[in-house]
Design goal:
Layout: E1 3-7, H1 25-28, E2 33-37, H2 47-64, E3 71-76, H3 78-87, E4 100-106, H4 120-124, H5 128-133, H6 145-148, E5 151-157, H7 162-177, E6 181-187, H8 194-197, H9 205-215
Parallel strand pairs: 1-2, 1-3, 3-4, 4-5, 5-6
Amino acid sequence: FPVLVYIHGGYWQCLSKDESGFAAPPLVSRGVAVVAVGYNTAPKGHMDAMVLQVRRSLAFLVERYSGIRGIYLCGHSAGAHLAAMVLSTDWTEYGVAPDIKGAVLVSGVYDLEPILHTYVNDALNMSREVAQRNSPMLCVTPAAPAAAACKVLVAVAQHDSPEFRRQSQEYGQALRAAGWSVSLLDLAGVDHFDIIEKLSEESYVLTQVREELPSSL
C-alpha cells in the first residue's frame, strides 16, 4: 500500500500532528495510508533534533511496515523544509532505504539564514552553523537512480511573500540542476495559509496532484 507522510508547518514552534488530519480523507478514500509526523517544536525542540526526528520517523515506517509500496512526502511551510531535508538524507546512516516516490513541498523555507535575524529565531535560537547545515538549498545532493525517479513538486502561493516565492523558485532550480525530477507550481488566488487548508477539498488542484502521485505505482 502507498503511504503519504504529512509534515505540519507552524514556523517550527507551533501546531502538531494532531491538527494534520484534515488532509487525509481524499487520500484514504482511495486506499492511500496517511501518516502525520510530529516533532518537538521550539523552544523545546532544536532544529537539528527536529530534522533527526522526522528522518527517524521515516526509518521507523519502513522498518515497521514491510507492505509499503512507495512513500510520498507532503509538507507545508516549516514542514516543507523538513520534507526537503528528508530528501537530502544519507539513509545508510539509518540502515534503511525508503522508497520515496514523490514529494509535494508547499510554500516551504529552503534557506534558513534569512531567518536568523527575525523574530522566528527568538524561539529557535539557531546559530549560523545550525542554519547552514539544515538549509535544504545547501544540502542538495546529486540524484541517485532512485532519487531521479522521485517526482518533486515545489508549490508556492500567488500571495506568498516575495522571499517564500524566491526560495521556492531557487530550490526547485537547484534540485533540477542536480538531476531530480522537479515541477514548480505557482497557485493563483491563494496565500500562505489557504494553499494548504484547501487540501480537504476534493476539487483543489493540490489535492488532485497528491492523488495522482500514488496512482503511478
